[in-house]
Amino acid sequence: MSSQFDEFLNSSDFSNHSRRAFLADLRKFSSWFEERNKESFALSRVTTRDVVDFRSHLQNVEKKAVSTINRNLVTVRRFFQWGVDHGLIVLNPVKGVKEIRKQIPAPKGLEPNQVRRLLREIELRDDVRSGAIFSVLLYCGCRVGDLCGIELSDLTISERSGSVVFRHGKGNKYRTVPLPLAARKAVSAYLAIRPESSSTRLFLGERGPLTDRAIRVLCEKYGRFCCFEIHPHLLRHTFSHKFLADNQNDLVSLSQILGHESLNTTARYTKRTDEELGNAAENVNY
After folding, report:
1. How far apart are CA 55 and CA 64, in angstroms?
2. pTM
3. What would the pLDDT profile of 210-243 be if each residue is shown by its tens digit?
Protein backbone atom coordinates (compact mmCIF):
# COMPACT_ATOMS: atom_id res chain seq x y z
CA MET A 1 0.00 0.00 0.00
CA SER A 2 2.91 2.37 0.63
CA SER A 3 3.69 2.10 -3.09
CA GLN A 4 0.21 3.48 -3.90
CA PHE A 5 0.77 6.30 -1.45
CA ASP A 6 4.01 7.11 -3.27
CA GLU A 7 2.31 6.95 -6.67
CA PHE A 8 -0.39 9.33 -5.44
CA LEU A 9 2.14 11.79 -4.03
CA ASN A 10 4.22 11.64 -7.21
CA SER A 11 1.16 12.33 -9.37
CA SER A 12 1.15 16.03 -8.42
CA ASP A 13 3.77 18.67 -7.82
CA PHE A 14 3.40 18.74 -4.04
CA SER A 15 5.92 20.59 -1.91
CA ASN A 16 8.08 18.55 0.45
CA HIS A 17 6.08 19.88 3.39
CA SER A 18 2.78 18.85 1.76
CA ARG A 19 4.14 15.42 0.90
CA ARG A 20 5.11 14.78 4.51
CA ALA A 21 1.74 15.99 5.80
CA PHE A 22 -0.27 13.96 3.24
CA LEU A 23 1.75 10.83 3.91
CA ALA A 24 1.24 11.17 7.66
CA ASP A 25 -2.53 11.57 7.12
CA LEU A 26 -2.75 8.53 4.86
CA ARG A 27 -0.72 6.37 7.23
CA LYS A 28 -2.91 7.45 10.13
CA PHE A 29 -6.06 6.48 8.23
CA SER A 30 -4.69 3.14 7.02
CA SER A 31 -3.43 2.25 10.51
CA TRP A 32 -6.79 3.13 12.03
CA PHE A 33 -8.58 1.08 9.34
CA GLU A 34 -6.49 -2.01 10.00
CA GLU A 35 -6.85 -1.78 13.76
CA ARG A 36 -10.59 -1.10 13.60
CA ASN A 37 -11.52 -3.69 10.98
CA LYS A 38 -8.83 -6.32 11.72
CA GLU A 39 -7.89 -6.60 8.03
CA SER A 40 -5.25 -5.23 5.70
CA PHE A 41 -5.85 -1.80 4.20
CA ALA A 42 -7.00 -1.81 0.57
CA LEU A 43 -8.74 0.90 -1.46
CA SER A 44 -11.51 -1.47 -2.53
CA ARG A 45 -12.32 -2.41 1.08
CA VAL A 46 -12.92 1.11 2.40
CA THR A 47 -16.54 2.22 2.84
CA THR A 48 -18.16 5.54 3.56
CA ARG A 49 -18.98 4.19 7.01
CA ASP A 50 -15.27 3.67 7.63
CA VAL A 51 -14.53 7.31 6.78
CA VAL A 52 -17.36 8.61 8.96
CA ASP A 53 -16.13 6.46 11.86
CA PHE A 54 -12.57 7.70 11.30
CA ARG A 55 -13.79 11.29 11.46
CA SER A 56 -15.64 10.49 14.69
CA HIS A 57 -12.54 8.81 16.12
CA LEU A 58 -10.38 11.87 15.45
CA GLN A 59 -12.99 14.18 16.94
CA ASN A 60 -14.19 12.25 19.99
CA VAL A 61 -11.33 9.90 20.90
CA GLU A 62 -8.18 11.72 19.84
CA LYS A 63 -9.77 15.14 20.44
CA LYS A 64 -8.06 16.59 17.38
CA ALA A 65 -8.59 20.18 16.34
CA VAL A 66 -11.24 20.80 13.68
CA SER A 67 -8.59 22.00 11.24
CA THR A 68 -6.59 18.78 11.72
CA ILE A 69 -9.64 16.57 11.22
CA ASN A 70 -10.66 18.42 8.07
CA ARG A 71 -7.13 18.25 6.67
CA ASN A 72 -7.13 14.46 7.20
CA LEU A 73 -10.46 14.16 5.38
CA VAL A 74 -9.29 16.27 2.47
CA THR A 75 -6.12 14.20 2.11
CA VAL A 76 -7.99 10.89 2.19
CA ARG A 77 -10.58 12.23 -0.26
CA ARG A 78 -7.88 13.27 -2.72
CA PHE A 79 -6.17 9.91 -2.43
CA PHE A 80 -9.34 7.97 -3.17
CA GLN A 81 -10.23 10.28 -6.04
CA TRP A 82 -6.81 9.52 -7.45
CA GLY A 83 -7.74 5.83 -7.13
CA VAL A 84 -10.96 6.43 -9.09
CA ASP A 85 -9.13 8.42 -11.78
CA HIS A 86 -6.62 5.59 -12.23
CA GLY A 87 -9.24 2.83 -12.35
CA LEU A 88 -8.25 1.26 -9.05
CA ILE A 89 -11.75 1.69 -7.57
CA VAL A 90 -15.14 2.62 -9.04
CA LEU A 91 -16.44 5.10 -6.44
CA ASN A 92 -14.82 7.48 -3.98
CA PRO A 93 -16.13 6.51 -0.51
CA VAL A 94 -15.03 9.87 0.92
CA LYS A 95 -16.92 12.00 -1.61
CA GLY A 96 -20.07 12.38 0.47
CA VAL A 97 -18.35 12.78 3.85
CA LYS A 98 -18.43 16.41 4.92
CA GLU A 99 -15.79 18.26 6.85
CA ILE A 100 -16.67 19.55 10.29
CA ARG A 101 -17.93 23.09 10.25
CA LYS A 102 -16.26 25.42 12.68
CA GLN A 103 -17.53 28.81 13.76
CA ILE A 104 -14.84 31.30 12.85
CA PRO A 105 -14.08 33.49 15.89
CA ALA A 106 -13.74 37.23 15.67
CA PRO A 107 -10.19 38.24 14.74
CA LYS A 108 -8.44 39.54 17.82
CA GLY A 109 -6.97 43.00 18.07
CA LEU A 110 -5.01 44.85 20.71
CA GLU A 111 -6.77 46.09 23.82
CA PRO A 112 -6.93 49.89 24.34
CA ASN A 113 -4.36 49.70 27.14
CA GLN A 114 -2.02 47.81 24.81
CA VAL A 115 -2.38 50.43 22.08
CA ARG A 116 -1.58 53.10 24.66
CA ARG A 117 1.47 51.11 25.79
CA LEU A 118 2.69 50.85 22.20
CA LEU A 119 2.28 54.56 21.49
CA ARG A 120 4.01 55.44 24.77
CA GLU A 121 6.99 53.22 23.96
CA ILE A 122 7.31 54.96 20.57
CA GLU A 123 7.12 58.40 22.20
CA LEU A 124 9.64 57.51 24.91
CA ARG A 125 12.14 56.58 22.20
CA ASP A 126 11.36 59.69 20.13
CA ASP A 127 10.95 57.29 17.19
CA VAL A 128 9.24 59.62 14.71
CA ARG A 129 9.28 57.24 11.75
CA SER A 130 7.82 54.38 13.80
CA GLY A 131 5.18 56.78 15.13
CA ALA A 132 4.09 57.50 11.57
CA ILE A 133 4.15 53.84 10.53
CA PHE A 134 2.13 52.60 13.48
CA SER A 135 -0.29 55.52 13.22
CA VAL A 136 -1.10 54.69 9.61
CA LEU A 137 -1.62 51.04 10.53
CA LEU A 138 -3.76 51.87 13.56
CA TYR A 139 -5.83 54.70 12.04
CA CYS A 140 -6.22 53.47 8.45
CA GLY A 141 -6.48 49.71 8.96
CA CYS A 142 -4.26 49.03 5.98
CA ARG A 143 -2.32 45.89 5.13
CA VAL A 144 1.45 45.88 5.34
CA GLY A 145 1.63 45.83 1.54
CA ASP A 146 -0.57 48.93 1.39
CA LEU A 147 1.74 50.68 3.83
CA CYS A 148 4.95 49.87 1.97
CA GLY A 149 3.43 50.98 -1.34
CA ILE A 150 2.49 54.52 -0.25
CA GLU A 151 4.02 57.17 -2.53
CA LEU A 152 4.52 60.77 -1.46
CA SER A 153 1.96 61.78 -4.08
CA ASP A 154 -0.60 59.45 -2.46
CA LEU A 155 -0.85 61.74 0.58
CA THR A 156 -3.23 64.64 0.94
CA ILE A 157 -2.74 66.48 4.22
CA SER A 158 -4.31 69.72 5.37
CA GLU A 159 -5.10 71.18 8.76
CA ARG A 160 -8.69 69.98 8.72
CA SER A 161 -8.59 66.81 6.64
CA GLY A 162 -6.39 64.28 4.95
CA SER A 163 -6.38 61.06 2.97
CA VAL A 164 -4.05 58.40 1.64
CA VAL A 165 -4.37 56.44 -1.57
CA PHE A 166 -3.58 52.74 -1.57
CA ARG A 167 -2.87 51.90 -5.20
CA HIS A 168 -1.65 48.34 -4.91
CA GLY A 169 -4.04 46.69 -2.49
CA LYS A 170 -4.95 43.02 -2.40
CA GLY A 171 -6.34 42.02 -5.78
CA ASN A 172 -4.84 45.22 -7.24
CA LYS A 173 -7.73 47.21 -5.80
CA TYR A 174 -7.30 50.99 -5.64
CA ARG A 175 -8.90 52.88 -2.77
CA THR A 176 -8.71 56.20 -0.96
CA VAL A 177 -8.85 56.12 2.83
CA PRO A 178 -9.29 59.02 5.30
CA LEU A 179 -6.23 60.03 7.28
CA PRO A 180 -7.47 61.06 10.75
CA LEU A 181 -5.90 63.91 12.71
CA ALA A 182 -3.62 61.75 14.88
CA ALA A 183 -2.25 60.00 11.79
CA ARG A 184 -1.87 63.31 9.92
CA LYS A 185 0.21 64.72 12.78
CA ALA A 186 2.41 61.62 12.95
CA VAL A 187 2.97 61.50 9.20
CA SER A 188 3.65 65.25 9.01
CA ALA A 189 6.24 64.93 11.78
CA TYR A 190 7.95 62.17 9.82
CA LEU A 191 7.86 64.14 6.56
CA ALA A 192 9.71 66.95 8.33
CA ILE A 193 12.68 64.65 9.02
CA ARG A 194 12.38 62.25 6.08
CA PRO A 195 15.82 61.92 4.46
CA GLU A 196 16.41 63.18 0.93
CA SER A 197 16.00 60.35 -1.55
CA SER A 198 15.42 59.66 -5.21
CA SER A 199 12.70 57.24 -4.10
CA THR A 200 9.14 58.53 -4.07
CA ARG A 201 8.04 55.97 -1.46
CA LEU A 202 6.89 57.49 1.81
CA PHE A 203 8.69 55.24 4.27
CA LEU A 204 12.44 54.85 3.86
CA GLY A 205 15.16 52.88 5.59
CA GLU A 206 18.92 53.03 5.31
CA ARG A 207 18.86 50.99 2.10
CA GLY A 208 15.84 52.55 0.46
CA PRO A 209 12.06 52.01 0.70
CA LEU A 210 10.93 49.87 3.62
CA THR A 211 9.84 46.34 2.75
CA ASP A 212 7.16 44.10 4.21
CA ARG A 213 9.88 42.29 6.12
CA ALA A 214 11.26 45.51 7.59
CA ILE A 215 7.80 46.46 8.90
CA ARG A 216 7.35 43.03 10.46
CA VAL A 217 10.76 43.28 12.13
CA LEU A 218 9.76 46.70 13.49
CA CYS A 219 6.56 45.19 14.90
CA GLU A 220 8.55 42.39 16.52
CA LYS A 221 10.94 44.92 18.07
CA TYR A 222 8.15 46.94 19.64
CA GLY A 223 6.43 43.73 20.68
CA ARG A 224 9.50 42.98 22.80
CA PHE A 225 9.42 46.48 24.27
CA CYS A 226 5.72 46.14 25.11
CA CYS A 227 5.85 42.48 26.23
CA PHE A 228 3.05 41.35 23.90
CA GLU A 229 2.87 40.18 20.31
CA ILE A 230 2.52 42.78 17.57
CA HIS A 231 2.23 42.15 13.84
CA PRO A 232 0.81 44.31 11.04
CA HIS A 233 -2.45 42.39 10.56
CA LEU A 234 -3.13 42.51 14.29
CA LEU A 235 -3.18 46.30 13.99
CA ARG A 236 -5.61 46.03 11.06
CA HIS A 237 -7.90 43.97 13.31
CA THR A 238 -7.43 46.52 16.10
CA PHE A 239 -8.55 49.35 13.83
CA SER A 240 -11.55 47.38 12.58
CA HIS A 241 -12.88 46.62 16.06
CA LYS A 242 -12.34 50.19 17.21
CA PHE A 243 -13.97 51.65 14.10
CA LEU A 244 -17.13 49.58 14.58
CA ALA A 245 -17.28 50.36 18.30
CA ASP A 246 -17.02 54.10 17.66
CA ASN A 247 -19.29 54.22 14.59
CA GLN A 248 -22.39 52.23 15.54
CA ASN A 249 -21.26 49.08 13.71
CA ASP A 250 -21.07 50.85 10.33
CA LEU A 251 -20.03 47.81 8.28
CA VAL A 252 -20.45 49.54 4.93
CA SER A 253 -17.92 52.26 5.73
CA LEU A 254 -15.48 49.81 7.31
CA SER A 255 -15.72 47.51 4.30
CA GLN A 256 -14.85 50.41 2.00
CA ILE A 257 -11.88 51.45 4.15
CA LEU A 258 -10.52 47.91 4.42
CA GLY A 259 -10.98 47.23 0.71
CA HIS A 260 -13.25 44.21 1.14
CA GLU A 261 -15.33 43.09 -1.82
CA SER A 262 -18.01 41.51 0.36
CA LEU A 263 -19.69 42.72 3.53
CA ASN A 264 -19.60 39.12 4.72
CA THR A 265 -15.84 39.41 5.06
CA THR A 266 -16.16 42.58 7.10
CA ALA A 267 -18.97 41.14 9.23
CA ARG A 268 -16.55 38.81 11.01
CA TYR A 269 -15.52 41.80 13.11
CA THR A 270 -19.03 41.94 14.58
CA LYS A 271 -18.61 38.49 16.12
CA ARG A 272 -17.95 38.45 19.82
CA THR A 273 -14.93 36.88 21.46
CA ASP A 274 -15.34 33.96 23.88
CA GLU A 275 -14.76 36.35 26.79
CA GLU A 276 -17.41 38.78 25.53
CA LEU A 277 -19.89 35.93 25.06
CA GLY A 278 -19.13 34.70 28.56
CA ASN A 279 -19.68 38.15 30.06
CA ALA A 280 -22.93 38.52 28.12
CA ALA A 281 -24.16 35.13 29.32
CA GLU A 282 -23.47 36.14 32.93
CA ASN A 283 -26.03 38.92 32.48
CA VAL A 284 -28.83 36.39 31.94
CA ASN A 285 -30.94 36.28 35.08
CA TYR A 286 -34.17 34.30 35.62
Report:
1. 10
2. 0.63
3. 999 999 999 999 999 999 999 999 999 999 999 9
